[in-house]
Amino acid sequence: MLNKFCRVPLTACTRTLADVAMGRKPADLVIRGAKLVNVCTKELLDGYDVAVSCGRIAAVGDVSASVGEGTTVIDATGKYLAPAFLDGHIHIESSMLTAREYARAVIPHGTAGIYYDPHEICNVLGLDGVRYMMEDAAKTPLKAMMTTPSCVPAVPGFEDTGAKIDAADVAETMTWDGCVGLGEMMNFPGILASAEPTHEIVAATLAAGKTVTGHFSIPDTGAALNAYIAAGVRCCHESTTEMSALEKMRRGMYAMLREGSAWHDLAEVAKAITRHTVDSRYACLISDDTHPHTLIGAGHLDHIVRRAVEEGIDPVTAIQMVTINVAQCFGMDAELGSVAPSKCADMVLLTDLETCKVDEVFIDGELVARGGKMLVTPAPYRYPDAARNTIHLSPVTEKDLRIPAAGTVHVHVLEVIPGRVGSYDRLTEMTAEGGELRADGEHDILKACVFERHHGTGTVGRGFVKGFGIRHGALAQTVAHDAHNLLVIGSNDADMVLAVNTLIECGGGLVAVRDGKVLGLVPLPIAGLMNDISAEEMDARVSALEDAWKDLGCTLPSPFMTMALIPLACLPEIRLTNRGLVDCRTFRFLPLIEEKP
Amino acid sequence: MLNKFCRVPLTACTRTLADVAMGRKPADLVIRGAKLVNVCTKELLDGYDVAVSCGRIAAVGDVSASVGEGTTVIDATGKYLAPAFLDGHIHIESSMLTAREYARAVIPHGTAGIYYDPHEICNVLGLDGVRYMMEDAAKTPLKAMMTTPSCVPAVPGFEDTGAKIDAADVAETMTWDGCVGLGEMMNFPGILASAEPTHEIVAATLAAGKTVTGHFSIPDTGAALNAYIAAGVRCCHESTTEMSALEKMRRGMYAMLREGSAWHDLAEVAKAITRHTVDSRYACLISDDTHPHTLIGAGHLDHIVRRAVEEGIDPVTAIQMVTINVAQCFGMDAELGSVAPSKCADMVLLTDLETCKVDEVFIDGELVARGGKMLVTPAPYRYPDAARNTIHLSPVTEKDLRIPAAGTVHVHVLEVIPGRVGSYDRLTEMTAEGGELRADGEHDILKACVFERHHGTGTVGRGFVKGFGIRHGALAQTVAHDAHNLLVIGSNDADMVLAVNTLIECGGGLVAVRDGKVLGLVPLPIAGLMNDISAEEMDARVSALEDAWKDLGCTLPSPFMTMALIPLACLPEIRLTNRGLVDCRTFRFLPLIEEKP
């Protein structure tokens, strides 16, 4: 696949690079004196300076002949020079930041490129949303390489999304310069069952010579894993055990070892490398979902490399896992992921190797960040109005929340599990009051409603959840996977109505309410998912909201993440979408009130 | 780049592969009980059986569920199962065999794929010749992946070839399914000098997303090597020292370590791996040029793996160097080079790992060879008449050999060097007899003539050579790099005329003559380079010719190889082409008789 992510195509500058290497023309930039982290040979090397021209590396070694008039010479004695980092699987929307603000947050941590799957915005706005995000990202120095969302909607037939993606859509995106592959194929049941529409989506990607990325979230390392890989899926970031990661690598599948804000897999999956004497070329380190708090505090891939080293992975090996291995996974190693002649001059200078302490960051040969600060200001991108008006829902009233019933009934209550993505189906006796079922804060039972917000269909899914530990108040959010309808939970209808209407008014976001008062609000006016404030501002907003959750009595870690999974019908055991309660074990709708308990 | 070299495109069989992996359909083939040589993780693994369907691997591990009606089950207990081998750089013509016969010779040695540069036939017949060879190869199970000859002619302006290749030709071939890249860019001076036509040829390849293969035959590891790699060249098979191989790997260039019939580099270049603690992913093992005698006796890549192990490279690492590393060099590792689900079922069973003893060979899941014997018979390919009538030259007479002169003169005599590719320019006093200069067998000076044989221009280059140790007789051949004009050397004009006319009559080849008698003849009627006899027959013919050389008194190793280099004007110090004597140090024509010695 042709790389479209370097400033100058290699075809346009081979003669200049040869001129610079031969000393006939001066380099734009020379970095001297650093110890080279050579990811091609897994060596630490002294005496390998680097000359840059046209945004690419012209020479590595003794490059003194390339220094001339106009050459910027950086003395990096005492530092380590490594390729800048590539994240093999991320969702920008998880940060709730726009691509611009995300780029500004991660570049100072050494990230030069991301392989991102914009499936959240795609569920809301379809390929238009994907295009907007690509336009946004294109204004930044970050090489934002798009993988087309493969599963929109996540579970067809059980919810209403803003858009649908089929094989023809995927085929269209494969002609786009910014597209490098297919986003995580979450519909592994469709792959395993040889479902034609699912395989057609994969085929459209393979036919374009691009990479199919995976999501194989079951522990199987036998028939199912084989079938999934045999179907052409090249990588997977869902391993949570040592052996599932290793068995993927043994089958030529890139095991993308994840250390996200909410999912801390590395302590376990690093063992695939540390407990076995293996060639680690099929292992990568990725973030998947990173919250602004992590970006501000811990960092991005620098943090994950640090974590990998803490888990016993050699630092140079860990750096291979965020550079050349990632580039090889996507067939882009001819131009990305190493400090070598002809490659894009995407490089970092580290002041410490073990702790992966990033100082300077170069992208396409330009110094874009130093000491944790961006040195360049990407032009702002204004998401079009279509992306800023995505809550197609009129203000609601308590009537819209009503769940009619009579007498004592058995209700399927969705119980969340702290820190995990699953849920339990708890058949619970409830007694109607005034002809309806109400929340029961005393017994940790909250009412939950999912309002379809894309097409104005007026559909509302209603039910009950438990496990949040909230006795009084309401929470609402338009980040509600994957359809991102408007989800509200609460102990009383009045607070729930206020929460919903607050979000309608601000175009989406996250809100916490108690006694008619908004305790915390994170407006996400872009697709109901993102805001173009900085990571720092976003972090402050989200922290305030988290404080509100705690005020309300919730002790869950990342409670709004757990809440956001309530509608995600591909997770066990039951889920609530705008169409109603779904039994995710049998993939059937479930009546809220069980007639034959 | 899309792989076109597997029997069934992956896009057409992902559902079937999933069915087989899941046990819903029976596999075509299951191999049980072998120890898996896992090139993805560099491990030897027990308990990894393999199920095959549609010519691809459906499952690896416990594949018992895939055994059903019609499944061929092979018990390979006690053997090693590895990916079949890929040769990253070869010239079929060096074997003097057609592609069919070459394939029949190498497949039983475990070779499933070759990246071949047909630059000999291309010098004679242009892209038509390349197409013929592709058609020939396509009838065999061998995955013959063509790299377009980049340097035809080798040294423009100094000889007449049958054809020329420019950037437009290269661009055309890049649209061919059978083309995977650019053949060895021998014109490294053109790359280093930023010559536009040379860089245009590279750019045409890069623009198609295909691989530029290299030929960097100077020991430089500084500015020149950087310039060459910066220009987009991805691999090189010309390293002859430990450090030149290692420095290429350190710059992300695939070091293709060569062990050909005539060039035995491995003892030295293997040290790049054995003396350094390096990741060897950028190292490959290749053959470049293999004679029928080597193919019959020692083998192909199995022999080179064996040699690598002898040099201290771990066997699994060595096998990586003829499988996955090669596939990664050409960006084809998604489908070739490993035993993993979705990959082409190109596999070998070895009875011994250290000695790389190949028993069964599978290509696209079909058992094609066992115990050193082909089990399938490729359909014959008849090269068209245009390829069989390439000696456009009328019978010659002694007059055509005449070198007029008077008195005693100083002559530039080309002295060959035993076992090396270079030559010396020896200014030698010679005295004319009967108005001409004649060979002087007593003093080891033979007359040499190069007859242009492509276009009937009638040009003849005439001169003298020494170093062959032949006192009486003549030798002629149409294998005469790279233009492959008709070259004759001899002690007397009568034998030389017979040698030339013998080759004209049989359409080209190699011949030895003494006293009006043909002592040995290898007819090469296809382009004057190849014959469609078997490798065994060719070996016998060539052996007989070598005996004739010895009879004539020549003690050089591979004397006809040394002779074949006499016209190759890119080698030092002087060369004789059909246009005359060339000074290869200054790239100027040299008068045979030096006026101012």
The helix count of chain A comes to 18
| End-to-end CA span of chain A | 56 Å
- Oligomerization: homodimer
Question: Helix/strand-derived class of chain A?
Answer: alpha/beta
Q: Shape of chain A from CA axes?
A: elongated
**Which band does the percent of strand residues of chain A land in?**
25-35%
Number of strands of chain A: 31
CA radius of gyration of chain A is: 25 Å
Q: Low-confidence segments of chain A, ≥5 residues, pLDDT <50?
A: none
Mean pLDDT of chain A: 96
Largest interface: A-B, 78 and 79 residues
Helix content of chain A: 25-40%
Largest sheet of chain A: 9 strands, mixed
Can you lay out the helices and strands and say which pair or pack?
The structure is a homodimer of 597-residue chains.
Chain A: H1 14-22, E1 29-32, E2 35-38, E3 43-45, E4 49-53, E5 56-61, E6 72-75, E7 80-83, E8 85-90, H2 99-106, E9 111-116, H3 119-138, E10 143-148, H4 167-173, E11 179-185, H5 188-192, H6 196-207, E12 211-214, H7 223-230, E13 233-236, H8 242-250, E14 254-258, H9 266-269, H10 271-274, E15 283-286, H11 292-297, H12 301-310, H13 315-320, H14 324-329, E16 347-352, E17 357-363, E18 366-370, E19 373-374, H15 385-388, E20 408-416, E21 423-431, E22 445-451, E23 460-466, E24 474-477, E25 486-490, H16 493-506, E26 509-514, E27 517-523, H17 535-551, H18 559-564, E28 574-577, E29 580-583, E30 588-590, E31 593-594
Helix pairs in contact in A: 4-6
